[in-house]
Amino acid sequence: MDKKSAIAFAPATVANVAVGFDILGFPLDAVGDTVTVERVDPAPGTQPTVTLAGTDGVVSNLPADPERNTATFPLIRLRSDLGLPFGFRVSVRKGIPLSSGMGGSAASSVGALTAANALLPEPLPREDLLKYALMGEELASGSPHGDNAAPCLLGGLTLLRSLDPVEAIRIPLPEALRVVLVHPHRELDTRSSRGILPRELPLKEYVAQSSRLASFIAACYSGDLDLLARSLKDSLVEPRRAPLIPAFHSVQRAALQAGALGCSISGSGPSVFALCRSDDQAERVRRAMAAAWDAAGVPCDSWTGPVSRSGARIQENGRAGVPA
Ligand code: HSE
After folding, report:
1. Is there an atom of ligand 1 within 6 Å of 77 CB?
2. SS3 sequence, 249-277?
3. Which numbered atom of ligand 1 lies nearest the CA of 193?
4. Is residue 268 lining ligand 1, measured as CB closer than 6 Å?
5. How do residues 128-156 score in pLDDT, each as one tens digit?
6. pLDDT tens column, 13-36
7. Is the pLDDT of residue 321 over 90?
8. What is the pLDDT of residue 11?
9. Which whole number is the average pLDDT over 302-314?
10. Ligand 1: which residue has its CA nearest to atom 1?
11. pTM exceeding the 0.85 threshold for the entire prediction
């Protein structure tokens, strides 16, 4: 018998990774969204529809109109492209805070697509879902950047070589590498955070940033963590966005003093991530970053863990995303 419902977990993601604006990202399983999708047969004589049953968790005030919601909109397009004779009812449990720079809109799209795909008579390869997830990103932020959606869907450190046609490349990572992700209780809308960036950049800045991107990728392939630490610096976007994040420089300094390999803004902020050599170091860095925000009077949540190798996946029950 065909499956009638499926639940997918879609992890939070760190986009940009300091050196790869709009093209590099990775997921973290410690926090994410859980999306339940039910297959709904239309009443006789009516068209199949995609509806939102509800949203709960850490965010509940998302658009109820399925055409404007990042979980349902990609399913409307998927259903229409495939000419499916049935529709979907979608429920979203948000573990990812709104406008946090943790890939919340991508996770809702990817979670919904992953669950809906499991209900298809012939599920699509995961890569084929990416173009639909990008439609959700465009709806949320006005630009179809894929550095949250691709790693959320595919897992691992993901480099987007091209959006048209979509081509995502998995970059290997040293096994020991650990992530710290800290979310100050502030919202930063991706549209405004993108809006402050200049349309054109000096050649000198391009050369400096591209040399660090190239050496970061080389360090990932060779496992050279010292090279990775020297490479993980953003002179392009971070200086322009840092003023939007309270106490950003104190938090970054605290992470580096606690031994982090590097520390920068997660996606469009205000969350901040750090990369570390071990679990112990990640825990020290997490505490140092949280203490710096605490000292600035900004409450925060924080998580640590390895980069998720699997990305979004089907799960039968349970809930992820409880902060440390
Ligand atoms: N690359 C995007 C940006 C990520 O920095 O605007 C948004 O989550």
Report:
1. no
2. HHHHHHHHHCCCCEEEECCCCCCEEEEEC
3. 6
4. yes
5. 999 999 998 888 888 778 999 999 999 99
6. 999 999 999 999 999 999 999 999
7. no
8. 98
9. 97
10. 22
11. yes
Q: How many whole angstroms separate alpha carbon 177 and alpha carbon 163? A: 28
* CATH code of domain 5-172: 3.30.230.10
52: β partners: 90
The residue written with tokens 């600035």 in the block is 296
User: Alpha carbon of 52 to those of 38, 46, 47, 119: distances in Å?
Assistant: 10, 18, 16, 17
Classify each residue of 124-137 as buried b or exposed e, where b means 16 or more C-beta atoms within 10 Å of its C-beta.
eebeebbbbbbbbb
How remote is the CA of residue 15 from the centroid of ligand 1, in Å?
A: 6
Average pLDDT over residues 202-212: 95
- As given in the structure block, the two tokens for residue 289 are 């970053």
Res 317: pLDDT: 57
- Of 190, 199, 238, 266, best ligand 1 pocket probe by most atoms within 8 Å of the beta carbon: 190
User: Ligand 1 mean position to 115 CA, how many Å?
Assistant: 25
| Alpha helices (H) along the chain | 73-82, 104-117, 126-141, 149-154, 190-195, 203-222, 225-231, 238-241, 248-257, 279-295
Class at the top of the CATH hierarchy for domain 178-305: alpha beta
Q: Decide whether any atom of ligand 1 lies within 6 Å of the 22 Cβ.
A: yes
The mean pLDDT value of the chain amounts to 94
Backbone dihedral angles phi then psi of residue 230, each to the nearest 5 degrees: -70, -25
Percentage of the chain exceeding pLDDT 70: 97
CB 92 within 8 A of CB 62: yes
147 within ligand 1 shell (Cβ under 6 A): yes
All structural domains of the chain with their residue ranges: 5-172, 178-305
Q: Is the beta carbon of 238 within 6 A of some atom in ligand 1?
A: no
User: Which is the closest atom of ligand 1 to the Cα of 13?
Assistant: 8
pLDDT in tens, 259-269: 999 999 999 99
